[in-house]
Amino acid sequence: MQFYSTNKKSPLVSLHEAVLTGLAPDGGLYMPTEIPQFSENFIGHLGQLSFQDIAFEVASRFVFPDLKRSTLEQIVDEAINFDAPLVEVENDVYSLELFHGPTLAFKDFGARFMSRLTAYYAQSLDREMTVLVATSGDTGSAVANGFHDVPGINVVLLYPSGKVRRIQEQQLTTLEGNVCALEVSGAFDDCQKLVKQAFADNELTDVVQLTSANSINIARLIPQSFYYFYGFAQLKSKAHPVAISVPSGNFGNLTAGIIAGRMGLPVYKFVTSTNVNDVVPKYLETGLFEPKPTIETISKAMDVGNPSNFARILDLYDGRHDRMREDLFGLIFSDDQTL
Prior knowledge:
Layout: E1 2-5, E2 13-14, H1 15-21, E3 30-32, H2 40-44, H3 51-63, H4 69-79, E4 86-90, E5 93-96, H5 107-122, E6 129-134, H6 138-147, E7 153-160, H7 166-173, E8 179-184, H8 188-200, H9 202-207, E9 209-212, H10 218-224, H11 226-233, E10 242-247, H12 252-262, E11 267-274, H13 279-286, H14 310-316, H15 321-327, E12 328-332, H16 335-338
Parallel strand pairs: 6-7, 6-9, 7-8, 10-11, 11-12
Antiparallel strand pairs: 1-2, 1-3, 4-5
Helix pairs in contact: 3-4, 3-11, 4-5, 5-6, 5-10, 6-7, 10-12, 12-14
């Protein structure tokens, strides 16, 4: 499988290069040249597979032949070693619990998978690699934990001062070793801007081997699709259309869900649930994408005024607002509603 840039100005690359560079030279995000399709028979028998089996089958469609089967099996076994139970809240309403990983964040799935894949590819380098991450809280802690003490890899985390929860700041700043946390005066979007500037700085990248562990990296995105399949597998009844509501900040999680749908998962509708940082629900309503300064809310990890992964969503729908509205429905929640 090869990967292209959403800006369409960079050459196709292998998974190896997409993972180790993170961002395409033209500033775009990498996407697979094709979305592989599962058969209806495979989808119908998901309930007979373990979470690890599902993760292996989904990942294999993107990473073969770049990885050997035995290598992928080892990565999945090490990364996806905790559960994601589907809990019934009320009749026909379920919550997919994604907080059973080591840092209690849904990003543990993607961060742990990516850390092991990156470490595997980094063995071919003649210098240390630096993983540069912007975080609004949960990304940083998950990435830091996933990469902690991995040989040959340093981690630099940028987080907005005063805008992450205390427990998350403690997770970010206390690992030491190969993990360095930098407190940035500004919002998450400022941290994200600094990361993108670093990748665009040729003088810097000539000296430092950089990659990203944000969801802008395709290795973070692919494993986030695993639990959509696993959640569907746990449904008691699949007779009704399935709608999935995804709390969204930088929109990597929703992008992974859309990709799962394109692979054959029968999702009737995705609900893009945001706080008052509402540029994507507003786009679904008006057809205009208008990034704006971040507004601070009590759901801090979702405080993103210019979500990077919206470029991938636009790409998946060929920039067609009408087609996107067929699959996505936007909802906006105030702090009062959240409470």
